[in-house]
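Dear colleagues,

As part of the handover before I leave the project, I'm documenting each prediction I ran so the next person doesn't have to rerun anything. This entry is a single chain, and its sequence is reproduced below.
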Amino acid sequence: MKEYEKRGYLLENFRLFHLRSEGGARTDLHYHEFCKLILLLSGQGSYYIDGQHYLLCPGDIVLVGSQSLHKPELSDAAPYERIILYISPEYLQRQSTADCDLRSVFSGEKGHVLRLNEERKQKIFRMAVQLERDLEGNVFGREIFSNAGLLRLLVEIGRNRENPETSGTSPVQPRSER
């Protein structure tokens, strides 16, 4: 059986990155001990998660659970810009309630990529940008505001996943790594 590389680490409850790359991204399959949320702002390509192959479009939301094997394959035809959140599974468990298990957002049960209509997508992307602003500097209440912002973002994504009118994307086809 092939061994896969564990990448990255997370010492806090969550961490946000806003990244832009000019070239395509190609990495080997790997996993993390944290959950990963990617909001694709620009770029094209695909993402492999737990043996499923998803074609990506700008505006897609990629949900990668803890321990999920995944890798991006992104085209170098366009800049690849994204907001990425690393989130501790323990934090998700502590913040969950009886009616809202935040870990389920990353379970993959309803797929790993969410593609929303323009109105819903803009709402979630505005929330992510506000969270990014809330994390800047060292202002009074920064931690409280950013925690609240992350929880609102995750609940909104979870509600969209549960809504039958919302469009998730289906995998293209299962892919063998051979």
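Confidence is low (pLDDT under 50) at residues 174-178. DSSP finds three helices and eleven strands in the chain.

All the best with the project,
I.
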